[in-house]
Design brief:
With 237 residues, the chain is an alpha/beta fold. Helices cover 41% and strands 16% of the residues. It contains eight helices and eleven strands. The protein has a seven-stranded mixed sheet with strand order 5-2-1-6-7-11-10, sandwiched between helices.
Length: 237
């Protein structure tokens, strides 16, 4: 157990997938005494990728010391992959925080900041192969833990991941209390939450619908990975 009240920082950005953010928020905010900060460049309202508007509580520049930095995913991560202000914030703060976390495609943003090199990491199944561009080893698991790095699969995996972090910080009993308080006992109506469960026909259909997004993400990842290589070469030189 930490001696002081924990301080959690969750990155909020335009076109975030809100459940990537709000799922972990519900878990972390129920830790007794916890301070949960929604961080963005300004305090202006931020619109999620499905239209939900969320208010930041602190700017990146004003963020306090943090025990956890968590990056959710969503369509907006493509812009973050080359956003120098966001990537610098993550890179600078990484050494001073106890845990780093990426939910869904938020893991790719950690990669773009140079924080996944040599690490095992997870993300949404449709973007998993992109992790290798940042020097990570892609892992097909719902929650992937590599030292102090916690990464997870798509969207709903953020709840599982946040519970794992609470357990790491405060012990299994504390995590169980939070899980029970939110009645997190999922029993989905269909076994379609993974390509393996959904089957080839459903997966192929969804991938066809997602093709423009995946192609745009591939281009953004390639650009970001090249920028990361240039930054590392400049530091080495």
């Amino acid at each position: 157990m930490t001696e002081k009240a924990p301080s959690f920082g969750l990155l909020l950005f335009p076109d975030v997938t809100q459940l990537d953010l709000t799922g972990p928020y519900e878990v972390l905010a129920r830790v007794p005494g916890a301070q949960v900060h929604l961080l963005w460049k300004t305090l202006d309202p931020v619109r999620s990728d499905t239209g939900l508007t969320i208010l930041p509580t602190a700017t990146l520049a004003e963020a306090p010391p943090l025990d956890l930095i968590l990056v959710p995913g969503g369509g907006g991560i493509n812009a973050l992959l080359t956003d120098e202000e966001v990537l610098a914030f993550l890179a600078e703060r990484a050494s001073g925080t106890r845990y780093l976390s990426g939910i869904c495609t938020g893991s790719l943003v950690l990669g773009a900041a140079g924080l996944l090199e040599g690490k095992r990491a997870g993300t949404h199944w449709a973007s998993r192969d992109f992790l290798a561009a940042f020097g990570a080893t892609p892992v097909a698991e719902r929650v992937v833990v590599d030292g102090t790095l916690f990464t997870g699969g798509g969207v709903t995996a953020g709840i599982d991941l946040a519970l794992r972090i609470v357990g790491a910080l405060f012990g299994e009993q504390a995590a169980k209390l939070v899980q029970l308080s939110i009645e997190y006992d999922p029993k989905p109506p269909f076994d379609a939450g993974s390509p393996e469960g959904a089957g080839e026909a459903v997966t192929t259909d969804l991938l066809a619908r997602m093709r423009p997004m995946i192609e745009a993400r591939a281009a953004a990842v390639a650009k970001s990975a090249e920028a990361l290589r240039r930054r590392r070469s400049a530091r080495a030189g």
